[in-house]
Design brief:
It catalyses: ATP + H2O = AMP + diphosphate + H(+). The chain is built from 13 helices and no strands. It is mainly α and 276 residues long. The N and C termini lie far apart (77 Å).
């Protein structure tokens, strides 16, 4: 029986959210859309909500972050409710599993290990603990356990990090740069002589090495690409604004004119533009 008092309690916290989720999934009185969902149909929303959290942080939209975190939390609640209905586990089990994991992975905080070590050493210890956990799960291969559903660029970096742990890595960033030149040349040759499928393969190889370069330079490639996207939007909107000043739209302009305005926008951003 739904707890109506809890559902309508503005200070009900986590118990309230869990009760609302149960009500939404109730076969007799719930929402038809929520009732029809399963893990596979909800998973894309979970990924989307995670990106919206990252977007709010990237834009420093702190007034939006609370809501975005709530949306992401609701995804965990939704999956846990479906799991409980299937007799697999409950939300409390999810929370307990995470708590157990955090305690086990931080013996320097919750155990008797010394806290007198650097963040770098803690990262090494963290990876050793995770490796032991994978061994308990019979994940014997170096690359076992890297989630298939991750964004491809992020997964590439994680795969490369795993391989680097066992020594399969270029020792210097110059070797990565040389490999980028090699892959770029192979892509050029493929474009001229090979099939579309082979061109796509060579393009993937180049992206994979670019991800490796990001790792060597200690750059988060997803964050770098998001920043590049934001910069492109900002500058293209600057081009549109300048076209509007002369009564034009991009479709009424041409590449030469827009390229000149693009360069002007770049110089203005850097404080280097002069009318003279």
């Amino acid at each position: 029986m739904p707890d109506e008092k809890l559902i309508n309690d503005p200070n009900g916290g986590m118990p309230r959210l869990l009760e609302i989720m149960r009500r939404l999934r109730d076969p007799k009185t719930g929402c038809p859309w929520d009732i029809e969902q399963d893990f596979s149909t909800i998973a894309p929303y979970t990924i989307e909500e995670a990106y919206e959290v990252a977007d709010a942080i990237e834009r420093q939209a702190w007034d939006e972050l609370k809501g975005e975190l709530g949306d992401l939390l609701f995804q965990s609640v939704f999956h846990a409710q479906m799991a409980e209905e299937a007799g697999m586990f409950s939300f409390d089990d999810v929370a307990d599993t995470m708590s157990d994991k955090m305690v086990a992975r931080h013996p320097h905080v919750f155990g008797d290990e010394s806290r007198d070590k650097s963040a770098a050493q803690q990262t090494v210890d963290w990876e050793q603990i995770k490796a032991a956990e994978r061994a308990q799960k019979a994940q014997k291969g170096t690359l076992d356990g890297v989630a298939v559903g991750l964004p491809a660029l992020l997964r590439a970096v994680k795969l490369q990090k795993r391989a680097a742990r066992v020594g399969f890595d270029w020792p210097h960033v110059d070797h990565v740069l040389d490999k980028i030149k090699e892959e770029a040349e192979e892509l050029t040759e493929a474009r001229n002589d090979l099939t579309q499928k082979e061109v796509e393969e060579e393009f993937g190889d180049l992206l994979f090495v670019m991800a490796n370069l990001a790792r060597h330079l200690k750059i988060e490639p997803e964050a770098a690409l998001r920043a590049a996207n934001a910069k492109f939007i900002r500058r293209f909107e600057g081009v549109e604004a300048k076209l509007a000043e002369i009564g034009k739209t991009p479709s009424e302009s041409d590449l030469d004119e827009m390229d000149a305005m693009w360069n002007r926008v770049k110089l203005e951003e850097r404080g280097q533009y002069s009318e003279s």
